[in-house]
Amino acid sequence: MLHADMLQELLTDEVKVARDRLGNRIVDLSIANFNVYCRLVVPGAGEFRLRLAGRSYDAEPFRVSVVNDRDEIQPPHLWPKGLYNGQHLSLGVPFACVRGTFEYHVHPSHLTDVWERYRHKIRLADLLDHLVRRCDR
């Protein structure tokens, strides 16, 4: 696991790249307590706040959730339809089945598709780009 200062620097650099890549497709992108928050508007569905928990990044992938302003995970009916893939079998939380997320790589059907294979390929900008596209479905 990275030292806290190094992790903060890594996340800051990755957020800068993601902001440039996503441009006006998102409302805001910020970091707090090693979590990356992405606010976006989905036409016809409203505004959503994604939390990408990165305390163990990049030794582990980001944990992705849709959260409210109090940072509580939202129930499934409040997730963008294209993002919600059901309750996670092991974790018992709503999840997005997207390669590069913690939930994907610890799902029983993906245990052989290990994070280490993608660790240096799927960066924050790539993951957010994919998540935002899924929200627009």
Notes on the protein architecture:
This protein has 137 residues and is of the alpha+beta class. The chain has one domain. The protein is 26% helix and 18% strand. The chain has helices spanning 4-22, 102-105, 124-135; strands at 28-32, 35-42, 46-53, 63-66. It has a four-stranded antiparallel beta sheet with strand order 1-2-3-4, with helices on one face. Helix 1 (4-22) packs across helix 3 (124-135). It is globular, with a radius of gyration of 14 Å. The termini are far apart. The model has no long low-confidence stretch (mean pLDDT 96).
* Helical content (DSSP H or I, runs of 4+): 25-40%
Computed over alpha carbons, the radius of gyration is 14 Å
> In percent, how much strand structure appears in the residues?
15-25%
How many distinct domains?
1
Structure class = alpha+beta
Question: For the terminal residues, how far apart are their CA atoms?
Answer: 35 Å
Q: How would you sum up the major sheet?
A: 4 strands, antiparallel
- Strand sequence of the main sheet, in spatial order? 1-2-3-4
Look at the structure and give the mean pLDDT.
Answer: 96
Q: Quick one: how many beta strands?
A: 4
Quick overview:
Helix content is 26%, strand content 18%. With 137 residues, the chain is an alpha+beta fold.
Topology:
Layout: H1 4-22, E1 28-32, E2 35-42, E3 46-53, E4 63-66, H2 102-105, H3 124-135
